[in-house]
Amino acid sequence: MHNTTILTPATLPSLARRVSDCHKGLLGHALIVAGGAGMGGASLLAAQSCLRLGAGLVSLATWPEHVSASLARQPEIMVRAVLQAAELQPLLVQASVVLVGPGLGQDDWATSLLAAVACTEVAQIWDADALNLLAQDYRRRPTQSAWILTPHPGEAARLLNCSVTEIQAQREQSALSIAHKYQAVVVLKGAHTVIANSEQRICLCQQGHPVMAGAGFGDVLGGVIAALVAQGMELFEACCLAVYIHAKAGEKLAVYGRGAAAGDLLAPMRQELEQLCPITG
Ligand SMILES: NC(=O)C1=CN([C@@H]2O[C@H](COP(=O)(O)OP(=O)(O)OC[C@H]3O[C@@H](n4cnc5c(N)ncnc54)[C@H](O)[C@@H]3O)[C@@H](O)[C@H]2O)[C@@H](O)CC1
Ligand SMILES: Nc1ncnc2c1ncn2[C@@H]1O[C@H](COP(=O)(O)OP(=O)(O)O)[C@@H](O)[C@H]1O
């Protein structure tokens, strides 16, 4: 049996305040490995949200055709064209956390980049196509590092080799089963997101809104988790805080009705984080 903790301001973990002589070198370097051909939006959304939630440095390793558009949109991100996995190595060495998968695709290029990430010791977050590739072959998992998996119900069904209906019928148990099978922290997304780990720890987020049922909202969440890990939070705690501020920001967007774009979350997520965990003081 497990006890479920409902995420509220009283139960949420906190992000440490910044000391007055803080500098970007103390706030982590996040590497986003994302965006195969035709999916440059997913990688940019993830990298932007990581930057906007306070990571000290953000690098984006992506398919070459996305470099100029990404730089034009967000020049603070260090955007690198990567054609071969070997080109990832110097970036992996610098990273304090890696997010891999948004819009990555599942071709040979994507598979080789994922293999390079899995070999490193740095904490890593696997999302979207990284999860699809993992579901196809369990041996793709990292062997030396702590990791987070962020499936939506479709990806969760692939990871457990069952149906979406079965996942949704018992969401908490499904998250625990994935956590146990893959020895990871798991964020099972969708209405009332569940966070679980392999020690049967489980948290439930009751915030959020159907206005978030749109392209890219999960890519943004991956970037937020990466930002909080980069700034020093433990993996499970970072997931809880990220899920909560992402969902609360979604509720704020709901007042405008249908048609929210995932990038609209950035400003309200910053406000939520500041309200819960002020930067100084
Ligand atoms: N702008 C971009 O470049 C975007 C790229 N994206 C990328 O597109 C690729 C494919 O991802 P998709 O997620 O679209 O496709 P998937 O085939 O992985 O997932 C879609 C299916 O999952 C199930 N599902 C998902 N959420 C559910 C929920 N809450 N309840 C019940 N069932 C649910 C449904 O069966 C749905 O048809 C990924 O690499 C992703 O990162 C998307 O993130 C959309 C935006
Ligand atoms: N009906 C809903 N209620 C609450 N949150 C939702 C709802 N629909 C989607 N979300 C949230 O939006 C995000 C969608 O992620 P995902 O399905 O991975 O989208 P994408 O791959 O397009 O980025 C998740 O964080 C999920 O919890």
TrEMBL record:
Catalyzes the dehydration of the S-form of NAD(P)HX at the expense of ADP, which is converted to AMP. Together with NAD(P)HX epimerase, which catalyzes the epimerization of the S- and R-forms, the enzyme allows the repair of both epimers of NAD(P)HX, a damaged form of NAD(P)H that is a result of enzymatic or heat-dependent hydration. The gene is nnrD. Residues 7-276 form the YjeF C-terminal domain. NCBIfam families: yjeF_cterm. Its EC number is 4.2.1.136. Homotetramer. It comes from the Bacteria. AMP binds at residues 189-193, 218. The keyword Disulfide bond does not apply. This is ADP-dependent (S)-NAD(P)H-hydrate dehydratase. Belongs to the NnrD/CARKD family. Its cofactor is Mg(2+). It catalyses: (6S)-NADHX + ADP = AMP + phosphate + NADH + H(+); (6S)-NADPHX + ADP = AMP + phosphate + NADPH + H(+). Keywords: ATP-binding, Lyase, Membrane, NAD, NADP, Nucleotide-binding, Transmembrane, Transmembrane helix. It comes from Thiopseudomonas acetoxidans. (6S)-NADPHX binds at residues 42, 103, 152, 219. It holds the Pfam family Carb_kinase. SUPFAM superfamilies: Ribokinase-like. PANTHER family: ATP-DEPENDENT (S)-NAD(P)H-HYDRATE DEHYDRATASE (PTHR12592:SF0), ATP-DEPENDENT (S)-NAD(P)H-HYDRATE DEHYDRATASE FAMILY MEMBER (PTHR12592). The chain crosses the membrane at residues 26-47.
